[in-house]
Q: What sequence folds into this?
């Protein structure tokens, strides 16, 4: 399955004139291959890297990695739906509270 992990790292990096090696150094990496993988949508950033990348470009991780955020949103919606279905039929007050919570969320 191909993932759309598109990011805006390359255009931002180029706008400010940084090389992949310089950006790798800036975020604490050792070589440019990690940056190349992120720019080419071949790998996902770690949580730490997503926040570190966003800082110098004055943006948020969700704006910097919209493809990843879209993928994570789809997974979250599916899991919420699955949990909602799994909890159906349990009459306890606690379960009803959980069902209300899941139904109320705007996934």
A:
């Amino acid at each position: 399955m191909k993932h759309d992990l598109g990011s805006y790292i390359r255009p931002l990096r180029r706008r400010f004139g940084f090389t992949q090696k310089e950006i790798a150094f800036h975020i604490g990496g050792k070589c440019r291959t990690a940056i190349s993988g992120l720019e080419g949508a071949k790998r996902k950033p770690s949580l730490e890297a997503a926040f570190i990348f966003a800082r110098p470009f004055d943006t948020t991780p969700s704006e910097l990695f919209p493809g990843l955020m879209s993928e994570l949103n789809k997974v979250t919606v599916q899991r919420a739906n699955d949990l909602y279905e799994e909890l159906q039929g349990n009459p306890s007050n606690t379960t009803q509270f959980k069902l209300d919570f899941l139904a109320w969320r705007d996934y």
Remarks:
- The chain has a mean pLDDT of 88.
- The radius of gyration is 19 Å.
- The first helix runs from residue 9 to 15.
- Residues 5 and 68 are 5 Å apart (CA to CA).
